[in-house]
Amino acid sequence: MGLGAGSIALIAIVALIIFGPKKLPEFGKAAGNTLREFRNATKGIVDEDDVKEKQDDR
Fold first, then answer.
1. pLDDT tens-digit profile of 14-52?
2. Range of 29's domain?
3. The Cα angle at residue 28 between residues 30 and 17, in degrees rounded to 5
4. Sign of torsion, CA 38 44 49 53?
5. 22-50 exposure pattern, b = at least 16 Cβ within 10 A, e = fewer
6. Is the backbone of residue 43 left (phi > 0), alpha (psi -120 to 50) or beta?
7. Which spans in 20-58 are helix H?
8. Coil, strand, or helix at residue 4?
9. Is residue 47 part of a domain?
């Protein structure tokens, strides 16, 4: 169930109508920051698991 280009365009148009052109960049920036923080947090968890596995192998 993937999103096609038409679906993405429709979502973008509806968001533009609801929030207006001045708020969308703020939402985009907030979403990008959230994704970056999530990636960093999950990377830390994966790195910790790798260290534990290496210690268990010894």
1. 988 998 888 888 988 999 999 999 998 888 777 776 666
2. 21-58
3. 125
4. positive
5. eeeeeeeeeeeeeeeeeeeeeeeeeeeee
6. alpha
7. 24-57
8. coil
9. yes
Is residue 26 one of the residues assigned to a domain?
A: yes
Q: Interior CA angle at 13 toward 7 and 16, to 5°?
A: 140
The pTM is what? 0.51
Taking alpha carbons only, the member of 29, 28, 48, 52 closest to residue 40 is 48
Total tally of structural domains belonging to the chain: 1
Q: Residue 37 corresponds to which amino acid?
A: E
Task: Check pLDDT > 70 for residue 53.
Answer: no
Residue 20: what are its φ and ψ, rounded to 5°?
Answer: 85, 160
